[in-house]
Amino acid sequence: MDQLVAQFADQLREALQIGRSANIRPHAHPLHQAYVAGMGGSGIGASFVAEFIRAECPIPYQTGKGYGIPAHIDAHTLAICSSYSGNTEETLAALDLLLTTGAKVVCIASGGKLLEIAKARDLDFIELPAGSPSPRACLGYSLVAQLCLLEKLGLIASRRLQEVSQAADLIDQEEEDIRNRAENIAQFLQDKIPVIYTTDRMEAVAVRFRQQLNENAKMLAWHHVIPEMNHNELVGWRQDYSQLAVVYLRNKDDYPRNQLRIDINKEIIGNYTGSIIELYSKGMSLIERALYLVHLTDWVSVYLAELRGKDAVEIKVIDYLKSELGKVKG
Q1: For each of the chain's 330 residues, which pLDDT tens digit applies?
Q2: Considering 231, 316, 327, 329, which one is annotated as catalytic?
Q3: Is 215 a catalytic residue?
Q4: Cα angle value 21/141/113 (rounded, 5°)
Q5: Which one of 29, 72, 119, 322 is the catalytic residue?
Q6: Helix (H) / strand (E) containing 215
Q7: What phi and psi, each to the nearest 5 degrees, are found at residue 60?
Q8: For 2-157, CATH number?
Q9: At 38, which helix (H) or strand (E)?
């Protein structure tokens, strides 16, 4: 896993080459909405893209993480099915339904049934490099493929792709410092239950960090976003929670009222746990800042796995779940 995480910047650059060379045809109808079906490491890419483009993309960008699809999907929908393996059963079930709607369906995968169906049905697709032992380590491929697709359809500006390239350069420049920071953060979190807070425009980073802690470090964690958590979860901080460690993912350009909220939150929560840490992003754009934090927290999860004596790649419980599901025809 450490080797996979170390390759993140190169993966972003390779993903740009793949996405830019993909053949994406215009749809027969105007596009009024976009919907992405994807799970786990493939699904989180859509969450990042939704945050990156929401101030620019003229159509809503919705993600779905299950077997079904919304009733409003129609012929004016860009429907993206994303599964690194191409065999995710929930995504394949969603694809079956999407094919009945007249939507423009585009598949993103490294192989499997998803690409087989795309080629057999003459659907547009973006084929990712195969062979990764951990689909969650392929986040760069997933999110960049979606950004390239949107750029080709004229839904976002080409500068978003340039920001991905700049993020890769930033990560390379900061790599040594990122790893040093990550080691210190991992030691801080080693015997704690992480509670991750960030603002609403960076929730995908918090979700990604939580998922990486789950899968790589074999730790439970939770997250929430500001300002929403100020209207509910903050009230739950009423007693000593010394086993919890609060991690704030911050940006220097966060909305001023949210920055004030975080400062007040820290004061309140500090009465109940002495373990609070702030991780500030680096970079000029939202994409750069988000991907910088992704790389930093990915390394944190890897170092935590080492400290806890866990195999970061192993996911036997998920394999068991899939094998049991496979015994029952759906």
Answers
A1: 888 999 999 999 999 999 999 999 999 999 999 999 999 888 899 999 999 999 999 999 999 999 999 999 999 999 999 999 999 999 999 999 999 999 999 999 999 999 999 999 999 999 999 988 788 889 999 999 999 999 999 999 999 999 999 999 999 999 999 999 999 999 999 999 999 999 999 999 999 999 999 999 999 999 999 999 999 999 999 999 999 999 999 999 999 999 999 999 999 999 999 999 999 999 999 999 999 999 999 999 999 999 999 998 888 888 888 888 889 976
A2: 231
A3: yes
A4: 85
A5: 322
A6: helix 203-215
A7: -65, 145
A8: 3.40.50.10490
A9: strand 33-38
* Annotation says 231 is catalytic: yes
Catalytic residue among 51, 203, 215, 288: 215
Q: What are phi and psi of 249, to 5 degrees?
A: -95, 115
Delimit the domains of the chain by residue range: 2-157, 174-307
Q: Give whole-number Cα distances, 60 to 48, 52, 109, in Å.
A: 14, 12, 23
Residues 6 or more apart in contact with residue 5 via CB below 8 angstroms:
137, 295, 298, 299, 302
| Angstrom distance (rounded) from CA 293 to CA 291 | 5
Is residue 14 flagged as an active site residue?
A: no
Its sign, for the CA torsion 70, 157, 287, 2, is positive
Is-same-fold flag (2-157; 174-307)?
yes
Q: Which CATH number fits domain 174-307: 2.60.120.260, 3.40.140.20, 3.40.50.300, 3.40.50.10490?
A: 3.40.50.10490
| 108: β partners | 82, 126
